[in-house]
Amino acid sequence: MKKRELFLPGLLCLLLSFCTDVRAQDNSRQPAKTTSQANGSISGTLVDSLTGKPLEYATVALLQQGTTQAVNGTLTDDKGNFILSGLSLGQYDLTFSFIGYAAKTIRQVTLTAGKPQVAVGNVKLAVSGATTLKEVQVQALRPTITQEADRMVVSIEGTALAAGRTAYDVLSTSPGVFIDQEGNIQLNGRSGVTVMLDGKLTYLSAQDLRSLLEGMPAENIRNIEIITNPSAKYDAQGSSGILNINLKKNTQQGVNGSVYAGATYNGKQYGYSGGAALNHKTGNWNTFLNLDAARRVGGRNSTFDRVFKGAEESVYFDQVATEDFRVQGPPSVRLGTDYSIDERHSVGVMGYFMTNKLNADFLTETYLGNAPGQPTQFIDADNFRENRFTNYTGNVHYLGKFDTLGTQLSADLDLVKIRNRGDAYFYNYFHNLADGGPATQDFLFTETPSGFDIISAKADFTKALSRGRKVELGLKASSVASDADSRFFFNNGDVPQPDLARTNHFIYDENIYAAYVNWNSNLGERFSLQAGLRAEQTVSEGESLTMKGSKKKRSYLDLFPSLFLKQKVNEDYELNYNYSRRIYRPNYGFLNPFFAYRDPYTYWLGNPNLRPQYTHSFGITQTYKKNYSLALSYQHQQDVISEIALIDAETSTTIYTIGNVDDAKNLSMTAVVPVKILKNWDTSNTLVIAYNEYNTMVDKQQVINDQVYYMLQSNHTILLPWKLKAEINGTYQGPAAYALYRIDPRWWVNVGLKKSFMEEKLEVSVNANDIFHTQHLIVSADVGEGNVSDWDQYFRQRNIGFTLRYKFSRGAKLEERKRNNLEELNRTGG
């Protein structure tokens, strides 16, 4: 890595000074100690209906009025008291449950601007010989989906969807989300999605991010936030919104956790996974350790057909390709601890380490000729690739809460180091079919070491004001240093000889300085407003050390406004209006001007002259009865970053590169409709209809590619006899357009079955994906008049998996009682 100066100490000193000053002011005021943070609250006391004695550690669930979907919950204390804080204004139902007592519900508890705190007094529970929560358990079959002003929250904690699955599985079945086989994510038919973990950027490529998500059990996830129009609080990077995965926080005293093991088979390759999650909470310390190991396997079977239209004659290119890969390594380790200084201040650290090795082969057989079905040349090309990926991530954070209304300060320092060490061998054998002459060969070799060093620091301050108003302020600074050294060699002799034309050493540094302000306010009882402005200064420098005069420096300041208006038409119907401006900076791989080799006739070339892409996004979301939503959105993108095809008919070569083309437009509608078919059969359904229009360049000619796209996702969860839970996920995608590609319709069905044993401590899950073998990717590309580029690829999505998980807890008996009641709350879908 190129040596660079650290630019963050000044900012960190400023944050430390600010934290110290705020805490000093806080101590001087000496407010009453409390853990409440919000404007609205509901409190009361739970007692035995006969004796009047308080019921300790009973479950209190807060439900959206008229539903059985929990949006909040707590346990009573040792005196039977409870308080639910952080509540928005509106109507709720309260459900109380405790082992040995009949459940009870208080309906239509109303919080208003004039009375945001409500006390329900003593709530009496009657003894019951056999109290169950069967109805609530059935409701938890599907995730709870809550529509907020600027996001949709999919809560999966405690649901059947989380059992025996990975974070990748859950994310890919979230409303409007589609993940392709390379790990690229689309949201409502649009690419350019940013993925975050606990509100923090992952800094991973699409393939590396997929590896991370596939190695993360879904049971570690609390909820997924789908933010189609992010507010000014978030980084402006990304053209299609944010998917934020929030992990569970341990609340149980003592030691608890789980261990798991699993296996998969795709008809050709075997894979496995295993790991453990361990939590320990005692006193002011809360520590966790996650270990996840896996051998992930996959591949593809493909056919590629091309026609190169020449001035005098055409060349017909027919290729069959097979790819196999496996990725494995020692267990990834995620270790962290939080220390509560007092009830209002906490600090913590987290470290993550993952390393794995990729082994892959890409074998092709290519026929070339001047007439269809009459080849004159045959090329047998065998590519073998290895890569060692390593990710070191560290985080230090602070959280301070300064009053009962929600005033708080948080600060984070993130350090990330990513390393790739790869090499590849290319063995090409050329056979002349026309005259039967001797075969020739061309052997090549590449070394591709690369890496990133990332430092990021941010501070966020929230000040709650009277009458439901709130202001949010924040600062952030980040620095990324990228170093990619791609070395190409001719490997036809005893000693590899450097190929200087295709060798490149590229260094790229980027610093981003950001500040934002967000204003939240109630505009009467029916309207609420959130308005924000984010400023980001980008300073970058890229240079190819093997190309003279290639240094490029850039410095630009951009403003990113956002606006959200929420209208409560009545108790059942809400409208959310939103607008935001976003930026999509080209990633470092796109900027690197090196040749990526696939076969003698196919290359990929980076472009250091890429400019950032900007997006204006408008949306209206309608929500009915808290569960049904219809979102309409329009995006206008400027300086679109798109793949471009360069055709050389004389050599039958296709070079794919990235460039800025004209504007793109997207109009979409997303509907989320949960339907309960039977008492034990619940479904969540998502329909996406979108119009996409792309302007791109092919052989220096402008090409318009547009298409009406639709996608239907239907997730079914069924409670069967003998406490079996079945899950069916079906997806249908209509024809689609992306950049210069047109994609044929396709569909697939995944099924799963789960059974619990030993009082739900042991879970066994079986999953089968793409059971009908229909998830083929059939693509055609518009590559100029008379030229053809079509392919059909299947990425071995059909597979079967088996997972065994055991949960354990070694807390005190009192804590065991807490755990049992809290699990009942989790089953309500909260």
Plain-language structure description:
- Residues 1-38, 129-140 and 812-830 have low confidence and may be disordered.
- The chain is mainly beta.
- It folds into two domains: 9-17 and 146-826, TonB-dependent receptor, beta-barrel domain (Maltoporin, Chain A), CATH 2.40.170; 31-132, Carboxypeptidase-like, regulatory domain (Immunoglobulin-like, Sandwich).
- The chain has a 29-stranded antiparallel beta sheet that branches. Strands 8-9-14-15-12-13 form a six-stranded mixed beta sheet, with no helix packed on it.
- The protein is globular.
- 7% of the residues lie in helices and 61% in strands.
Quick summary:
With 830 residues, this protein is mainly beta. The chain has two domains: 9-17 and 146-826, Beta Barrel (Maltoporin, Chain A); 31-132, Carboxypeptidase-like, regulatory domain (Immunoglobulin-like, Sandwich). 36% of the residues are buried.
Sequence stretches where pLDDT stays below 50 over 5 or more residues: 1-38, 129-140, 812-830
Q: What integer is the average pLDDT?
A: 82
Please give the domain count: 2
The assigned CATH architecture of the largest domain is Beta Barrel
Radius of gyration: 28 Å
CATH topology of the largest domain: Maltoporin, Chain A
Multimeric organization: single chain
Give the helix/strand layout.
Elements (H helix, E strand, L loop, with lengths): L8 H21 L10 E9 L10 E6 L5 E6 L5 E7 L2 E8 L6 E8 L5 E9 L8 H6 L4 E4 L4 E4 L11 H6 L4 E3 L5 E3 L6 E4 L2 E2 L4 H9 L6 E7 L14 E6 L6 E12 L4 E13 L2 E25 L4 E15 L3 E9 L4 E25 L7 E25 L6 E25 L7 E8 L2 E15 L5 E21 L6 E2 L5 E20 L3 E18 L7 E17 L4 E12 L3 H4 L3 E5 L2 E4 L7 E12 L3 E11 L1 E9 L4 E9 L2 E15 L2 E18 L2 E20 L3 E10 L2 E3 L2 E3 L2 E12 L4 E8 L7 E5 L6 E7 L4 E11 L3 H14 L4
Parallel strand pairs: 1-7, 12-15, 33-37
Antiparallel strand pairs: 1-4, 2-3, 2-5, 5-6, 8-9, 9-14, 10-11, 12-13, 14-15, 16-17, 16-48, 17-18, 18-19, 18-20, 18-47, 19-21, 20-21, 21-22, 22-23, 23-24, 23-25, 24-26, 25-26, 26-27, 26-28, 28-29, 29-30, 30-31, 31-34, 32-33, 34-35, 35-38, 36-37, 38-39, 39-40, 40-41, 41-44, 42-43, 43-46, 44-45, ...
